[in-house]
Amino acid sequence: MSKPNKPNKPNKPKNAPRRPAAAVTPDSPCPCGRADAYRDCCAAFHQGRATAPTAERLMRSRYSAFAVGDTAYLMRTWHPTTRPGGLDLEPAQRWTGLEILGTTGGSAFHTEGTVEFRAHFTLHGRPDSQYENSRFVREDGQWVYLDALPSV
C-alpha cells in the first residue's frame, strides 16, 4: 500500500500526515469498515489513546491510516526490521473499502498472526484493489506489521 520515500523535499517535514481531499472527520464512518465513527474506532489508535488489541484491529487501523494520510502511525506500527526510512503516499489515491478475507492467530493469546485482505481504492479516478496476506507480530506487547507473505 505504500512505497519507500524518495529524498524529502525541503519544505515537507518527514512523515507529515496528508489528508485526502474529502477528509475523514471524527463523526465520519471509520474507513476500516467497522460500524463505529472514526473518533470511536481507529482515531483512538492513531492518536495514541489506545493500542490495537488484535492483529486484525491493527490491520484495520493501518488501512484507516492510509485513508487519512497518517504516515506517522504507519511508521510507528511497522516492525523496526522491515520499516522503510519513510513513506510517500500517492496523493491521487483514495482508499474506498477494506475486505478482511481471513485471519490466523493474532489474538490476545498469540504472539503472531496473519490478516488476509483486499483493500479497494481509486487512483486517478480508476477503481482498483490490492490483495495481501500480512504478517503481524507482538513487539514489547504491541502488535506491529512485519511483512506481506508471498502470494501463492
TrEMBL record:
Give me the ranges of the annotated region Disordered.
1-29
According to the entry, every stretch annotated as the YchJ-like middle NTF2-like domain falls at 54-148
Pfam entry (one) = YchJ_M-like
Matching entries from InterPro entries are given as: NTF2-like_dom_sf (IPR032710), YchJ-like (IPR023006), YchJ-like_M (IPR048469)
Q: Which family does it belong to?
A: Belongs to the UPF0225 family.
Query: What is the name attached to this protein's record?
Result: UPF0225 protein San01_02200
Q: From which organism does this entry originate?
A: Streptomyces angustmyceticus
Question: The organism's lineage?
Answer: Bacteria, Bacillati, Actinomycetota, Actinomycetes, Kitasatosporales
